[in-house]
Design brief:
The protein is mostly helical. The protein is 72% helix and 0% strand.
């Protein structure tokens, strides 16, 4: 199986755009009630869908890219330098903007939890979504990354013919979360039909979100072992689109991950299978791969750009439909430019320099040189 999955890389940007549109419609109300209602209806579940996709994708890609002989410290080092520099950069930007623009009061303990990526363990919503709102998901990812070297050993022991059973069981564990959430103590009730405790348990709590991650691991093993998928890529796309539009018909807690989980898992799996079969796809084009590469930085920056861009252009203002769309396009472009700069000058250089120890880089260079010499001799 090829290590690189270009089409799957391209899908990451599509998911990031969904999250952008969700936050843009929430933070940028249209002056026209009809336009605002249409935007809200269209993108009401886009944020949950995008984040669920990222969690499934994390489990899938990490399983796909397992390296023979890799150790847990080596794996943790790579993941740390993949996510933490972007987190720290955007945290500092959020801190400056909060204190300098909105004059917000900063609580020291909240800052510590956020810097250490522990904020999602706190049931207080203001702690989980403080500073850079989207960083709560990295708090979940941090737990995923810590556990992955141990989880993959357990999953590797599952016989191929039993993989579908465990995949279905992992999906059922995620889908059942809203039912178990009803057993929690009554908390602050939101007008959306759930409480702050239920939101935390179903969507923000790292141990329960790890079930989504595990589902991604099993989906990767399904493809890697050549298990038959029930649908093609086209069928998975159709199923995902249908599930997206019927999600609002289900109960509020089921709209977070439960309805979209299986369609997203099948979409990720069929896309990877197409990549493994070298099927040409638009999602695997050079432009889409480039967009996928900068999608993590895009995800980390977009809420800050939307929030403070709105503040700069007119705090609390509503615009006509055409003006609001133009502003959103402008801020989308600004986020894209900032994401490229972050990827180009922060994320990629730090990954190249620090994600692998100097000894391993030198060994890889020697091995590559030896392979080149043998190739020249064979020629």
């Amino acid at each position: 199986m090829p290590l690189r999955l270009p089409s799957l890389t391209g899908t990451r940007f599509v998911a990031a755009v969904l999250v952008f549109l969700f936050h843009a419609t929430v933070l940028f109300p249209f002056a026209s009630p009809g336009a605002q209602k249409s935007a809200t209806t269209l993108f009401a579940t886009a944020g949950w869908t995008g984040v669920t996709f990222f969690f499934v994708l994390s489990g899938f890609v990490l399983t796909w890219a397992v390296r023979p002989g890799d150790t847990a410290p080596q794996f943790w080092r790579r993941r740390f330098f993949k996510i933490y520099p972007n987190h720290l950069l955007t945290f500092l930007a959020a801190l400056i903007l909060l204190t300098g623009v909105t004059k917000a009061t900063i609580h020291g303990w909240d800052s510590v939890l956020n810097v250490l990526l522990l904020q999602s363990w706190d049931p207080d919503l203001s702690v989980r979504t403080g500073f850079n709102v989207v960083a709560w998901s990295l708090s979940c990812e941090a737990l995923f990354y810590f556990c992955f070297p141990f989880l993959i050993r357990l999953v590797d022991k599952v016989r191929p013919e039993r993989l579908w059973f465990w995949t279905i069981l992992s999906a059922a564990s995620v889908i059942s979360l809203p039912t178990f959430a009803k057993l929690l103590p009554a908390g602050q009730q939101f007008p959306y039909g759930f409480s702050d405790w239920e939101l935390w348990f179903v969507f923000h709590f790292p141990p329960t979100q790890m079930l989504t991650f595990v589902f991604g691991i099993f989906m990767a093993k399904i493809v890697l072992t050549g298990r038959r998928l029930p649908v093609s890529f086209g069928g998975a796309v159709a199923l995902t689109v249908v599930a997206y539009f019927v999600t609002p018909l289900f109960g509020p807690l089921y709209q977070f991950s439960a309805v979209m989980l299986v369609p997203i898992g099948l979409l990720v799996a069929t896309t990877a299978a197409a990549d493994a079969g070298s099927q040409p796809m638009f999602l695997g084009s050079r432009k889409m791969v480039w967009l996928g590469d900068i999608s993590f930085a895009f995800y980390m920056w977009h809420v800050l750009v939307i929030t403070y861009g709105h503040h700069l252009l007119g705090a609390g203002e509503n615009w006509s439909t055409s003006t609001a769309i133009a502003v959103m396009v402008l801020l989308f472009a600004a986020t894209l430019a900032l994401s490229w700069a972050t990827f180009r000058f922060v994320e990629r250089p730090l990954m190249r320099r620090f994600a692998t120890s100097r000894r391993r880089r030198e060994l890889a260079a020697v091995t590559a040189g030896s392979t080149s010499v043998h190739s020249d001799r064979d020629a």
